[in-house]
Design a protein that fits this description.
The complex is a heterodimer of chains A (427) and B (111). Chain A is of the alpha/beta class. Chain A contains ten helices and 18 strands. Chain B has one domain: Folate-binding fold. Classes of the chains: A alpha/beta (427), B alpha+beta (111). The structure holds flavin-adenine dinucleotide (FAD) and zinc ion (ZN).
């Protein structure tokens, strides 16, 4: 089935036309494809990273004979479970240019995909509570500015003007000293990003195959030449892995062995919808508390905190972090106290040993790896897909992702933003 | 909430504990200068979906480091013993250590 010619563009005129004909003429956003016996490229994992990779393979590199294999439904993993914060405030070589490239792609994404991903550049405010925190953030934001990335220092008074309902009490346990602000940062609609990339990729000929779990790899002369799935064998010259928390499991199947990754769960929370209350993203990290919050377009307060802390493949959270996050919320924004939490859930993160990702070829011919997103991979979706597609198409990385390799641990070139050392819990 | 049956204190909520790390990793001897051995121990992880050996510190209890066997998919804990081999030996050699409740401790049950 060739979906290419028949995909109608979304436009104001379409809405008008469909409105007049009782909305009976809309077509499904993407083709629910069945697997063919062979493709040029297989991408395993129908999250944002897999879908974006397939889209850029088709749109930039002209490789359209591509399948995205998803064991459940697209966007059912972390890409549909996150708190949707998009920013590029990184300071280490390897990360800085990559995340800024991703942010630039976000800025034109709705137009490029002809799909409203609701990217809202409402800014990202990192509060600080101690001189040490201020100095560390100043160093980070100065590094960003030297790299042409926007970042501003805000005094306590300026922060108070921006978000007056934070806890500015003199008696606060951790009084706010000020903040660092990235104006171009913001939030987006997670489902729309997955669906937008799926629709645009499908329109270019990519097969998006759901309910198709990869259960093994087909090896031939030391190369990977395809996969075994719950829907039969599928062959391809090149296979890309983009399965987030399941990376170690598939790497083992493929013969990659142990990786510098642990799987951990991260929870998120959303409140009942309330009237417009917060028009930026606020991040609070004081001592052992970590908390970030924004408001969705539906009005729900969307927030989260740290990992539960113990390795896990269960997509459900535990009570202590719930308590910790609620405590942080009351500390920094006491007016939230009477707002009810509506839902809470968790996703499984691919936590790398230095907190930075991998977009790389592997030691096995025909196998490419996209992983290690920790809990910051939503913002990376456009940049990661762009770089992964380049790496697969050219069989060599783009300059932007050339440091995001697996062997950086072997050669002592970790990209350790938090300076923690080997610790699979940085974000 | 996970319940960890501390061999010294009895069953406690896991927020009394601090999760440390993968307890199956064996660091090379200090004199070992093989770079690859260090690379593997410091950075590479088995990361299983299933039985996992891990160390927890009973920070707000006896402050012992415990070696816990827990399933990473179901979170079911099947064994809790002191991480230090001497304490483990000591507990194992005691004749049926008994808690106030009269229950046998997990330390004695897990060989
Ligand atoms: C609670 C939470 C909050 C977060 N907040 C933010 C945030 O504010 N900002 C930010 O930038 N990032 C955030 N993240 C991180 C971000 O969501 C992830 O890094 C990102 O979505 C990863 O995308 P992905 O495509 O790699 O993985 P996923 O979206 O998880 O997709 C991987 C897919 O692979 C599939 N799969 C697994 N095994 C197989 C198999 N054997 N065969 C076929 N398919 C398979 C899965 O079903 C899944 O759909 C958050 C994550 C969570 C859980
Ligand atoms: Zn104890």
């Amino acid at each position: 089935m060739d979906g290419k010619a028949r995909v109608k563009r979304y436009s104001a005129l379409q809405i008008l036309k469909q409105g007049l004909s009782g909305h009976s003429g809309w077509q499904p956003a993407w083709r629910d494809a069945s697997p063919k016996p062979a493709y040029d490229v297989i991408i395993i994992g129908g999250g944002g990273h897999g879908l974006a990779s397939a889209y850029y393979l088709a749109s930039i590199h002209g490789i359209t004979n591509v399948a995205v294999l998803e064991k459940g439904w697209i966007g059912g993993g972390n890409s549909g479970r996150n708190t949707t914060i998009v920013r590029s405030n990184y300071s280490m070589e390897g990360n800085t240019a990559f995340y800024e490239h991703s942010l630039k792609l976000w800025e034109g994404l709705s137009q490029e995909l002809n799909y409203n991903v609701m990217f809202s550049q409402r800014g990202h405010l990192n509060l600080f509570f101690t001189p040490a925190q201020r100095d560390a953030l100043a160093r980070r934001y100065n590094t960003m500015r030297l790299n042409g990335i926007d970042g501003e220092f805000l005094s306590r008074e300026q922060v108070e003007k921006m978000v007056p309902h934070l806890n500015f009490s003199e008696e606060a346990r951790f009084p706010i000293m000020g903040g660092f602000f990235q104006p171009r940062a913001g939030t987006a609609r997670h489902d729309a990003v997955n669906w937008g990339y799926a629709r645009a990729a499908s329109a270019l000929g990519v097969d998006i195959i759901q309910n198709c779990e990869v259960t093994g790899f087909i090896h031939q002369a030391g190369q990977i030449v395809g996969v075994e799935t719950s829907r039969g064998e599928i062959r391809a010259e090149k296979t890309g892995l983009a399965v987030a928390g399941s990376t170690s499991l598939l790497a083992k199947m493929a013969g990659l062995g142990k990786l510098p990754i642990e799987s951990h769960k991260l929870q998120a929370f959303v409140s009942e919808p309330i009237k417009p209350f917060l028009d930026t993203v606020v991040v609070y990290s004081a001592y052992h508390g970590h908390f970030y919050i924004s408001q969705s377009d539906k009005g729900g307060m969307v927030f989260g905190g740290d990992l539960d802390g113990h390795n896990s493949y269960a997509q459900r959270g535990n009570l202590p972090i719930y308590n910790n996050v609620a405590g942080c919320a009351m500390n920094v924004m006491p007016s939230l106290g009477r707002v009810k939490v509506l839902r809470q859930w968790a996703g499984i993160m691919d936590m790398s040993m230095d907190g930075s990702p991998f977009i790389t070829k592997t030691d096995i011919g025909g196998l490419y790896l996209n992983a290690g997103w920790c809990y910051g991979g939503f913002k990376a979706i456009p940049g990661s897909g762009w770089c992964f597609a380049h790496t697969i198409a050219h069989d060599s990385p783009h300059e932007i992702n050339s440091l995001l390799t697996l062997d950086r641990f072997k050669i002592g070139r970790q990209i350790d933003e938090s300076g923690h050392g080997p610790f699979p819990k940085s974000h | 909430m996970l319940r960890i049956d501390c061999p010294f204190c009895g069953p406690r909520n896991h927020d009394e504990f601090t999760y440390l790390e993968d307890g199956s990793v064996k660091m090379p001897a200090l004199a070992n200068s093989n770079k690859n051995a260090w690379y593997e121990a410091v950075f590479l992880r088995e990361n299983p979906r299933g039985a996992h050996i891990e160390d927890w510190h009973h920070t707000q209890g006896c402050r012992m480091v415990l070696r816990v066997k827990r399933d990473t998919l179901t979170h079911k804990i099947t064994s809790v013993v002191p991480a230090h081999p001497e304490y483990k030996k000591m507990l194992a050699s005691r004749d049926k250590p008994v808690r106030p409740s009269g229950k046998k401790s997990a330390g004695a049950r897990a060989k």
